[in-house]
């Protein structure tokens, strides 16, 4: 169904090949077209790498930030609120620019494009991950903590073996959504020059001056990538089961 | 017989509400105490204070020579001495029966996995469901789940075991199988405190009956006297209600 839909759109667009349209820039039957397509697709590497590294970091950070939110201690809960509110308030694009251009000066370090992009994306996403984990952990019945108490589990073991496995199963769909969201947001790191899908497209547009055709391919690249990832996430959900 | 639990004049507030108003209770080694009383009288709160699930405000609790203060050390010593079985079973739903049973022994008692599995099998046999070891809790009946919960407590080899209305969430036909396991445990010499309204069980196994009302222990007596001729009016009224139902 989805494939059919894409094919139809593609045909409609291709039908405008005459006149002002210039599909030749991405025509896979010509050498030039192939070169351009390969150039565009080569951005896939950084799009995926950036997103995956960023989501892993943001999940870990999100989990660490979520835990104090569950504490009885008001100060610890305050730390969580502070982090979440601040980070959520900053637009991702602004955060990317600040981490790339500002952070090196503040911290006196050098930071390359890749890590600047990853850190900014991870930071921004971690606040959302923290909220997801908080909700997931809070949805676990308090009887589970009490049972852990009676079999003498310490806090770390209680979290690791009892609470988190249940919480993570429940938040898996939300984590999957975050990954998809991250893949899309990663296009923003093109502004600092990361060689991912969007950056490649921008560069090709500059040399070929065919924005419609190049950006249409870009749209399709993201579309296919995200459909595949979504299917993967659904498969994983089914395998782990939302709740045992 | 030596005294193993000494609760001395404890009180417990939830905000403005006083759930326990100066409760004292002594339990000897091997003694079987049954607590009953109307809903909201503080039965659960009392036994939850004894194993540190709730923090009492005044008074003292001593378990097997250890004073329960909120230091991590005293709490962990007391936890290791006391097992508890809940009304809602509170099994870990993402783990198999075997994993439910071996988690505590492996992580808290630092047992080797193979030893923990042997131990778990031994207790599963005692609660008569060794064939369910590899199932998940949802695949079991309520009665079976509660027996797994009892076995899980026993795997920690506690000296005392607390029951908080262990049969209240069960269908009548499953109550019997759980009470049988509990009775067997009682005859094995385990120190037990049971909150339950199962009068048959209480008459059979209790060494001491405790009646609570409004956050206080109103009556303490041997079962014979308790069920036939209690001293207090409130206790008599309560018994009339649960016995002639
Ligand atoms: N966490 C809590 N926060 C506030 N009030 C509580 C809390 N736990 C118990 N209470 C109150 O304390 C009182 C005693 O509760 P408790 O659970 O000990 O009663 P119970 O005798 O076990 O009753 P039941 O037979 O219904 O289980 C009740 O009025 C209850 O509402
Ligand atoms: Mg209760």
Short précis:
The complex is a heterodimer of chains A (244) and B (245). Chain A is built from ten helices and no strands.
Report on this model:
The complex is a heterodimer of chains A (244) and B (245). Chain A has 244 residues and is mainly α. Chain A has a single domain, classed as MetI-like (MetI-like fold, Orthogonal Bundle), CATH 1.10.3720.10. Chain A has 10 helices and no strands. Chain A has helices spanning 2-14, 31-41, 44-69, 74-89, 92-107, 113-138, 142-150, 155-185, 197-208, 211-240. Chain A is globular. Chain B has one domain (3-243): 3-Layer(aba) Sandwich (Rossmann fold), CATH 3.40.50. Chain B contains 9 helices and 10 strands. Chain B has helices at 43-50, 72-81, 97-107, 113-126, 142-154, 172-187, 199-205, 223-228, 233-243, and strands at residues 3-14, 17-28, 32-36, 58-63, 66-67, 82-85, 160-164, 191-195, 208-213, 216-221. In chain B, the strands form 2 sheets. Chain B has a 6-stranded mixed beta sheet with strand order 6-7-8-3-9-10, sandwiched between helices. In chain B, strands 2-1-4-5 form a 4-stranded antiparallel beta sheet, with helices on one face. In chain B, 48% of the residues are buried. The interface between A and B is medium-sized, with 19 and 29 residues.
Characterize the biggest β-sheet of chain A: none
CATH superfamily of chain A: MetI-like
CATH uppermost class of chain A: Mainly Alpha
Strand pairing plus helix content of chain A: what structural class?
mainly alpha
Major beta sheet of chain B, specifics? 6 strands, mixed
Strand order of the largest sheet of chain B: 6-7-8-3-9-10
Please, what is the oligomeric state? Answer: heterodimer
CATH fold-level topology of chain A: MetI-like fold
Low-confidence stretches of chain A: none
Counting helices, strands and paired strands, the structural category of chain B is alpha/beta
Head-to-tail CA distance between termini of chain B: 37 Å
Strand portion of chain A: under 5%
Q: What's the shape of chain A?
A: globular
**Count of discrete alpha- or pi-helical segments spanning 4 or more residues of chain A:** 10
Say how many strands of chain B there are: 10
Class of chain B in CATH?
Answer: Alpha Beta
Give the name of the CATH superfamily of chain B: P-loop containing nucleotide triphosphate hydrolases
């Amino acid at each position: 169904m989805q494939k059919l839909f894409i094919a139809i759109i593609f045909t409609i667009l291709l039908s405008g090949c005459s006149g002002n349209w210039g599909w030749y820039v991405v025509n896979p039957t010509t050498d030039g077209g192939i070169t351009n397509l390969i150039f565009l697709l080569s951005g896939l590497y950084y799009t995926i790498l950036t997103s995956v590294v960023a989501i892993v970091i943001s999940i870990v950070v999100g989990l660490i930030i979520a835990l104090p939110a569950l504490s009885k201690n008001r100060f610890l809960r305050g730390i969580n609120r502070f982090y979440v509110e601040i980070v959520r308030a900053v637009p991702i694009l602004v955060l990317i620019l600040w981490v790339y251009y500002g952070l090196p000066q503040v911290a006196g370090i050098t930071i390359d494009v890749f890590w600047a992009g990853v850190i900014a994306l991870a930071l921004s996403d971690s606040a959302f991950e923290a909220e997801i984990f908080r909700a997931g952990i809070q949805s676990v019945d308090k009887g589970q903590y009490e049972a852990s108490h009676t079999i003498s589990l310490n806090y770390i073991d209680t979290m690791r073996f009892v609470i988190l496995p249940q919480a993570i199963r429940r938040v898996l769909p939300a984590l999957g959504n975050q990954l998809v969201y991250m893949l899309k947001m990663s296009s923003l790191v093109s502004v600092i020059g990361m060689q991912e899908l969007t950056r490649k497209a921008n560069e090709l547009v500059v040399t070929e001056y065919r924005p419609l055709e190049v950006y249409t391919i870009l749209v399709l690249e993201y579309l296919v990538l995200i459909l595949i990832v979504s299917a993967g996430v659904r498969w994983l959900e089914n395998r782990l089961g939302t709740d045992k | 017989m030596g005294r193993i639990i000494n609760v001395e004049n404890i009180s417990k507030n939830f905000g403005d509400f006083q759930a326990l108003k100066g409760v004292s209770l002594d339990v000897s080694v091997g003694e079987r105490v049954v607590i009953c009383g109307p809903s909201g009288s503080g039965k659960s709160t009392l036994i939850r204070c004894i194993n540190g699930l709730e923090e009492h405000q005044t008074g003292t609790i001593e378990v097997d020579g250890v004073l329960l203060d909120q230091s991590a050390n005293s709490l962990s010593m007391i936890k290791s001495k006391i097992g508890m079985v809940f009304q809602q079973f509170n099994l870990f739903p993402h783990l198999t029966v075997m994993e439910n049973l071996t988690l505590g022994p492996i992580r808290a008692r630092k047992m080797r996995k193979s030893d923990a599995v042997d131990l778990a099998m031994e207790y599963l046999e005692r609660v008569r469901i060794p064939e369910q070891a590899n199932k998940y809790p949802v695949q079991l009946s309520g009665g079976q789940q509660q027996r797994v919960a009892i076995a899980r407590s026993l795997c920690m080899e506690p000296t005392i075991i607390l029951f908080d209305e262990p049969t209240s969430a069960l269908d009548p036909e499953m109550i019997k199988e759980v009470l049988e396991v509990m009775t067997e445990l009682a005859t094995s010499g385990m120190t037990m405190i049971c909150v339950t309204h199962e009068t048959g069980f209480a008459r059979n196994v209790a060494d001491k009956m405790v009646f609570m009302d409004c956050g206080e222990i109103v009556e303490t007596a041997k079962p014979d006297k308790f069920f036939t001729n209690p001293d207090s009016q409130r206790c008599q009224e309560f018994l009339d209600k649960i016995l002639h139902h």
